[in-house]
Amino acid sequence: MTLLLPALQSPTGPAASQEAVRFGDLSLTYGRLAGASAALAARIADAGRVAVWATPTPETVIAVVAALRAGVPAVPLNPRTGASELAHILADSEPTVVLAGPDDVLPAALEKLRRVTVDARVETENPTGHVEHGGVEPGPESPALIVYTSGTTGPPKGAVLPRRAIAASLDALEDAWGWTGDDVLVHALPLFHVHGLILGVLGPLRRGGSLRHLGKFSPDGVARELGSGGTMLFGVPTMYHRLAEVLDAPAGSAGSAERDVLAGALAGARLLVSGSAALPVHDHERIAAATGRRVIERYGMTETLMNTGIRADGAPRPGTVGPPLAGVELRLAEEDGTVLDPAGAIGEVGEIQVRGPNLFTGYLNRPDATAAAHTADGWFRTGDVGTVDADGYVTIVGRKATDLIKSGGYKIGAGEIENVLLGHPGVREAAVTGEEDPDLGERVVAWVVAADPDSPPPAEELADHVAAQLAPHKRPRTVRYLDALPRNDLGKIMKRSLHA
Ligand code: MCA
Ligand code: AMP
After folding, report:
1. Beta strand pairing status for 380-388 and 394-399?
2. 471 SS3 class
3. Looking at ligand 1, which atom is closest to the CA of residue 189?
4. Which of 25, 164, 187, 271 has the fewest CB atoms lying closer than 10 Å?
5. Looking at the predicted structure, is the pLDDT value of residue 344 above 80?
6. How far is Cα 82 from Cα 78, in angstroms, rounded to an integer?
7. What pLDDT band is residue 135 in, cutting at 50, 70 and 90?
8. Looking at the domain 404-499, which fold is it?
9. How far is the CA of 194 from the centre of ligand 1 (A)?
10. Is the pLDDT assigned to residue 134 strictly greater than 70?
11. Alpha carbon 365 to chain centroid distance?
């Protein structure tokens, strides 16, 4: 296998002094990142698996790159993960080491691991790096990252992502977008999911380009970085929605100066890319009207990395996610599994199934779930429902599972939240649904029957309870109290009738 991150292999001369990543006022050149990651790789070479406390900092970049160079699988952790979710991930993935920054305060659950501190401010003795793992790149199928993703029921599953999938997906995006080492990517995505970590960090590093991370998303930050050399922006639809809101400020209003700066910065970018959920056509149109630029969408999934995408040189078609990327095979199947004939299936609706070098190898410790996610003939069942046009453009029209919620671009299983709500002493019954939300796409709504109807637990208390056990983005944004949940004759909760 060719190198996963060739630009980090002993960079010398001008290549060594080129900026690799910048987070606020902290920047790392290729030489510095190569040196720091090589030194760290040597320290973790014998760890079976490492957990990475994935804050939006250069330390996370050094940690993940070091793990890749050492050939040790890394498990990126959301630093806001609550107690029960963290306990599950640790028990499931069994890391022996946790990589964290010097100032990070880690939860008790991580205390039993060996802590290795990563400090981006410390110069290493070996600024140009060295050849790792004896000069032999780990095999293409060796696991690089284990990324946790929610399902409809039960705790999150660890998707095992081999080096081959990362390389294939990033190279398919290079082909689709003309992505080069001259590109400067701007984003504010979290670094514990595929979008922010693989596309947003390993993407620029594989090309020998650079990343400027905002730390926290803000329209001002986007305007500043795109207005001073950034060439590409990656974001989830919620971020583009918030940009569109700023761009909507009427002339002469208080926000019009901010609008003009943002519009100019977006207009000057080479590529504006949205993914992780559907970007509403209304937001596409508002951004196009204010900037003259089209946001393009690509469609991916933790288990498959990237499947389709609008090409930089292709027709931007709002509402579609473009044709399959190089190397990806895509087909539609009916409810009963019958594969739709591609020639006769134009415009027909079916489950999207994919095959290709971009796919994961399976869920960690879950052969049952891995088997269930594949068809007998080896295709991955995405659970997304879509159509394909005559020119191969894919449109996603829905999702098979009603118990999956996409909020702010995060996938959230209704079942995991219901289980946690039922663990609250004030809750007798609970159901969780997703409700349309202009900002988040979908908003988590909890329907609760209180143990004591005269003093139901306050909504904020339930939200805090979910945030503390799972993660803040999984907390219910709305709580509705009922005397009883609607159930069918078999006792199953009828979620569809809740909204009615
Ligand atoms: C609020 N907060 C709380 C609570 N309430 N903390 C603890 N307990 C509470 N009860 C805090 C939050 O931690 C946060 O802190 C702040 O309040 C606001 O949080 P939140 O409401 O969640 O933020 P938001 O404004 O709704 O965030 C919107 C967002 C975010 C920035 C767009 O949703 C986001 O980053 N989404 C990206 C998701 C993503 O990358 N998905 C990719 C997976 P503070 O203010 O300190 O921050 S999909 C994927 O990878 C596939 C492959 C693909 O196709 O891309
Ligand atoms: P995750 O499992 O968190 O990686 O999320 C993957 C899911 O996000 C996919 O199965 C889709 O439902 C959704 N998704 C990703 N990109 C897009 C997009 N551009 N348009 C619509 N849905 C998307």
Report:
1. antiparallel
2. coil
3. 40
4. 25
5. no
6. 9
7. low
8. GMP Synthetase; Chain A, domain 3 (3.30.300)
9. 15
10. no
11. 22
Rounded distance from Cα 306 to ligand 2 centre (Å): 10
Q: Is the pLDDT of residue 174 over 60?
A: yes
Give the per-residue pLDDT at 189.
98
State whether the beta carbon of 9 lies less than 6 angstroms from ligand 2: no
Residue type, 34: A
Q: Which tokens is 7 given?
A: 């630009």
Q: Rounded to an integer, what is the distance from CA 418 to the centroid of its chain?
A: 23
**Ligand that comes closest to the CA of residue 473:** 1
Q: How far is the CA of 129 from the centre of ligand 2 (A)?
A: 37
> For residues 344 and 309, what is the distance between their CA atoms, to the nearest angstrom?
23
- DSSP sequence for 308-334: EE--TTS---TT---SBPTT-EEEEE-
Q: 239 CA to middle of ligand 2, Å?
A: 15
Among 1-5, 132-136, 230-234, top mean pLDDT goes to: 230-234
Distant-in-sequence contacts of 452-461, Cβ < 8 A, 24+ apart? 452/426, 453/483, 455/426, 456/426, 456/481, 457/424, 457/426, 457/427, 461/424, 461/426
Q: Does residue 127 register a pLDDT over 80?
A: no
Judge whether residue 267 has pLDDT over 70.
Answer: yes
Q: Answer whether 464 contacts ligand 1 (Cβ < 6 A).
A: yes
What does the domain layout of the chain look like in residue ranges?
A: 404-499
pLDDT score at 422: 98
| Tokens found for residue 174 | 């290079």
297 pLDDT exceeds 70?
Answer: yes
Cβ of 55 closer than 6 Å to ligand 1, yes or no, is no
Pairing of strands 296-301, 305-309: antiparallel
Specify whether the CB–CB gap between 174 and 205 falls below 8 A: no
pLDDT score of 119 more than 90? yes
355 forms beta bridges with: 329
Q: Which of 231, 184, 174 is nearest to 212 (CA)?
A: 184
How far does residue 440's CA lie from ligand 2's centre (Å)?
14
Pull the structure tokens for residue 460. 């904020």
| pLDDT category of residue 128 using cuts at 50, 70 and 90 | low
Report whether 107 contacts 325 (CB < 8 A): no
Contact, 441 vs 450, CB < 8 A?
A: no
Nearest ligand, CA 297: 2
Mean pLDDT of the chain: 95
Residues 6+ apart with CB under 8 A from 303: 149, 159, 359, 360, 373, 380
Task: Give which of 495, 473, 327, 499 is closest to 406, Cα–Cα.
Answer: 473
Pocket test for ligand 1, best of 81, 166, 195 (most atoms within 8 A of CB): 195
pLDDT tens across 351-372, in order?
Answer: 999 999 999 999 999 999 999 9
Q: Is 410 in the pocket of ligand 1 (CB under 6 A)?
A: yes
Beta-bridge partner residues of 98: 51, 115
